[in-house]
Amino acid sequence: MKKVTDLLLGLTLMSLLFIGCSKDEDGDSTQSTGSMTIAGETYDISNGILEYYGSWGASGAPYNIDLVLYSDGITIKEVDGEAEPSGKGNFLYFEILTDTEATLPEGTYTFSDSETAGTFDFSDYGINYDVANDDSDIYDYITAGTITVSKSNNIYTISISLTDSSDNTITGSFSGTLKYFDYSNLSYSVTTTTLKSAKSKNVFLK
To answer: Which of 81, 132, 165, 202 is deepest in the core (most CB within 10 A)?
Structure first.
């Protein structure tokens, strides 16, 4: 009798294991991955969001959409339709200009102050950034480089090749989903370079 009971228990456990594996294989949860390497040190940036601000000028193109990649130590929650970060971790931020409304199109974006589509005009990063105290172990801003973006369904693949103001080379990549926030109907102007008051550009723009 004990042998039969043990056999039934074993079959039950195998069934539960099979069901769990099947759910994983169905792709119910897509794990985002990402990292950046700065001066030979590699840091996690395995999460991301997009923040859309609308027309860069009075109307029409270019359009401003910001990309923020960040590590697991930072949490970004949606509060009243806006991204509210907390915690401590790494981030990499880009202010991007595109020729397409409300999305981040595929392509290569180059650092430039020309304020034209296909460029990013500001980018910075922080290592072990403490959101509450607005302080990082390492902080710098980008002075040159490119971002390459591709997309398949809702999965973005992003490659970066950058140089910071200390002449460090920064390389990295991200693959995964990006949560989307639309601020284009808010009343502030995206043409300011300070924290864009009201939602005044996000906390990662210094």
So the answer is: 202
